[in-house]
């Protein structure tokens, strides 16, 4: 009778493990490095705390047959899955391995991802996906497509329950793009990350358009035009560092509060610079991000979608050590008007903050919605409703600060008291009105201007009268539409005190089916 001593069994285990750790060929690894890309294992090691990674399904292999698959059955099947910690906090992770089958997804590959996604959801920790794959594994046919569906369904089930972060570090094409699209944040790397439904060759065949890979699906295309990439970084290490930084602002799940830190910035610090930041001429722009940085702890503002829909700015920061989400109209871009893209961007951010218990500060300087045929045909009504709905249904603490213009329906949409803001403040420079003085005078005094001997002088006289009477915060303050008119230098102190009061806010929306929520 043959014996199998433990030493022999351990040698066999070590041999198999070593084979799994080097599943990609040396040629494939060298090619990955030559493109400025790390391997899947190198990425996991860089992202997670040293020594914290516990791998799952290391020895999993595909069980498909035909088309050459019988000849090669590498361990891991082209994806590394497991759990570990980032800054001491637990996370689950998968990393597609382009050196094995080009990172293409097959049945076992998908089962590994399903398992780790289920684990993340059941224990309530963030799920991070490092994407670098060629899409569905053609040799496995419809099984691959079915397996993608399992990933998509889990993305939906975890949405708003745990943070889901997608990091695209290579190709992500075809149906594979929809999993990142349903996660909360997408990171891409310049020149090496690409996402598209159909590649340049197919586009040329079908439409006759010639477009490069970078123009069609590169990081900056998705950061500036499509609004797919939340964050774009110059290289992989910078990208993974930014993922770590983002996690510092997010709770592990929707039942926890975001991580707070011991504050080191004086909560009573005066914001004297804000007294002069708004130009005397209401038509002149200024930089809203300067206002935001002046108010936040140490001026640290982590901006979201910084390259897309720049007429609104969204991002994370801290007030007295506690995480806040910030939404602000940007007067330096398109005068801060709301349009299709900015409404979409802000609505998604507001809903993310609401899902993960992050209070929302809204800085308002909005002249209205962007007029135009393209906007109307593109659905500005529908997209503007998304932002209105997002603010209205948010149950986290919500504070509005009107710095200058607050005109028409756009003012109402931007987290006004009428749609449920807990507290609203205005600077003395605030102008809360149905429309701006110039437009109002043209409508109200149209006949008077037409009959005037000197229309230009009369128009200016009427504009001055309207501005004096209506373009100020005091009528709104009299009616309680703003809770106080404050000195801009007191903004930080006022907001910190307000957030402290709202910290124990409890509000639940009536339980109902979603109906016609404008997603």
From TrEMBL:
Pfam families: Carboxyl_trans. The keyword Isomerase does not apply. SUPFAM superfamilies: ClpP/crotonase. Its EC number is 6.-.-.-. The keyword Transmembrane does not apply. One of its GO terms (molecular function) is ligase activity. Residues 266-515 form the CoA carboxyltransferase C-terminal domain. It is an enzyme of class 6 (ligase). Residues 6-262 form the CoA carboxyltransferase N-terminal domain. Keywords: Ligase. PANTHER family: PROPIONYL-COA CARBOXYLASE BETA CHAIN, PROPIONYL-COA CARBOXYLASE BETA CHAIN, MITOCHONDRIAL. This is Acyl-CoA carboxylase subunit beta. It comes from Ferrimicrobium acidiphilum.
């Amino acid at each position: 009778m043959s014996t199998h001593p433990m030493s022999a069994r351990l040698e066999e285990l070590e041999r198999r493990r070593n084979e799994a750790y080097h599943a990609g060929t040396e040629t494939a690894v060298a090619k990955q490095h030559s493109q400025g890309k790390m391997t899947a294992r190198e990425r996991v090691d860089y992202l997670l705390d040293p020594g914290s990674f516990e791998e799952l399904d290391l020895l999993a292999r595909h069980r498909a047959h035909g088309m050459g698959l019988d000849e090669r059955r590498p361990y891991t099947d082209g994806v590394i899955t497991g759990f570990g910690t980032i800054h001491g906090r637990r996370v689950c992770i998968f990393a597609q391995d382009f050196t094995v089958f080009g990172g293409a997804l097959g049945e076992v590959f998908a089962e590994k991802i399903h398992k780790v996604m289920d684990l993340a959801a059941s224990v309530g920790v963030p799920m991070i996906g490092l994407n670098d794959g060629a899409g569905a594994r053609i040799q496995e046919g419809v099984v691959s497509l079915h397996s993608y569906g399992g990933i998509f369904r889990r993305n939906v089930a975890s949405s708003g329950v745990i943070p889901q972060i997608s990091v695209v570090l290579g190709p992500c094409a075809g149906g594979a793009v929809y999993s990142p699209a349903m996660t909360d944040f997408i990171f891409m790397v310049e020149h090496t990350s690409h996402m598209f439904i159909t590649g340049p060759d197919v586009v040329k065949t079908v439409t006759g358009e010639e477009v490069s890979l970078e123009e069609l699906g590169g990081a900056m295309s998705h950061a500036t035009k499509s609004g797919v990439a939340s964050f774009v970084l110059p290289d992989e290490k910078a990208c993974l560092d930014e993922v770590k930084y983002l996690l510092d602002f997010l709770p592990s799940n929707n039942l926890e509060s975001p991580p707070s830190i011991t504050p080191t910035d004086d909560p009573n610090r005066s914001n004297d610079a804000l007294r002069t930041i708004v130009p005397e001429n209401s038509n002149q722009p200024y930089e809203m991000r300067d206002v935001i940085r002046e108010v936040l702890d140490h001026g640290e503002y982590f901006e979201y979608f910084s390259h897309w829909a720049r007429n609104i700015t969204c991002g994370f920061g801290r007030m007295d050590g506690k995480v806040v989400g910030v939404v602000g109209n940007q007067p330096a871009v398109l005068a801060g008007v709301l349009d299709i893209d900015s409404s979409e961007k802000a609505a998604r951010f507001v809903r993310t903050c609401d899902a993960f218990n992050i209070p929302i500060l809204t800085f308002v300087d909005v002249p209205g919605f962007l007029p135009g045929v393209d906007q109307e045909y593109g659905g500005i009504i529908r997209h503007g409703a998304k932002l209105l709905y997002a603010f209205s249904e948010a149950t986290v603490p919500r504070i509005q600060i009107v710095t200058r213009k607050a005109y028409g329906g756009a003012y109402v949409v931007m987290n006004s008291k009428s749609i449920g803001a807990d507290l609203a403040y205005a600077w003395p420079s605030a102008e809360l009105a149905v429309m701006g003085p110039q437009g109002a005078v043209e409508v109200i005094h149209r006949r008077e201007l037409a009959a005037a001997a000197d229309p230009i002088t009369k128009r200016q006289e009427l504009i001055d009268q309207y501005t004096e009477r209506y373009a100020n915060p005091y009528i709104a303050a009299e009616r309680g539409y703003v809770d106080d008119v404050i000195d801009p230098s007191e903004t930080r102190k006022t907001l910190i005190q307000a957030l402290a009061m709202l910290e124990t806010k409890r509000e639940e929306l009536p339980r109902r089916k979603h109906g016609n929520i404008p997603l």
